Inverse folding.
């Protein structure tokens, strides 16, 4: 016995899980990893919530903050959560508009996972006194799949 745990099924070839991993310099350099769906053929919803997402304004360089909610119905693959976390944090030094970040994250996940369905809600805190919320989805949710509402309240300031 070597003392090292065996890799769980479907995790062979992962480069980040269970290892020290440096923060990616940019979203383009971030590696999103996937594992085989442990329930192929079953329709279910997976939700990731990133309540402290940050990026930079591409004009001023000031930080922007958002609460992201990502829902998807997997097909053959699920995203490995550590790689998703590293991908999302790679935006901290990345300058892009809210729309580019939100829709870009969704499109990258769709390209990597080919899910049955995906949606993202980007609930951005005010920039210039106005919150900008961005929503994207790939189509209608699959019939018979429970998709919970995102229920993130619009920004209300102090009132």
């Amino acid at each position: 016995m070597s003392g090292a745990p065996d890799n769980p099924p479907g995790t062979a070839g992962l480069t980040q899980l269970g290892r020290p991993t440096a923060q990616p310099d940019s979203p383009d350099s971030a590696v999103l990893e996937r594992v085989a769906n442990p329930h192929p053929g079953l329709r279910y919803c997976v939700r990731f919530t990133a309540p402290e997402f940050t990026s930079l304004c591409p004009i001023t360089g000031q930080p922007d903050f958002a609460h992201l909610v990502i829902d998807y119905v997997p097909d053959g693959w699920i995203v490995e959560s550590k790689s998703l976390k590293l991908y999302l944090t790679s935006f901290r030094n990345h300058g892009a508009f809210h729309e580019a970040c939100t829709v870009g994250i969704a499109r990258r996940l769709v390209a990597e996972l080919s899910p049955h369905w995906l949606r993202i809600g980007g609930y951005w805190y005010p920039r210039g006194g106005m919150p900008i919320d961005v929503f994207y989805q790939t189509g209608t949710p699959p019939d018979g799949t429970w998709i919970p509402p995102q229920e993130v309240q619009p920004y209300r300031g102090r009132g």
Remarks:
- The first strand starts at residue 34 and ends at 36.
- The chain is about 15% helix and 25% strand.
- The chain has a mean pLDDT of 90.
- Residues 40 and 76 are 6 Å apart (CA to CA).
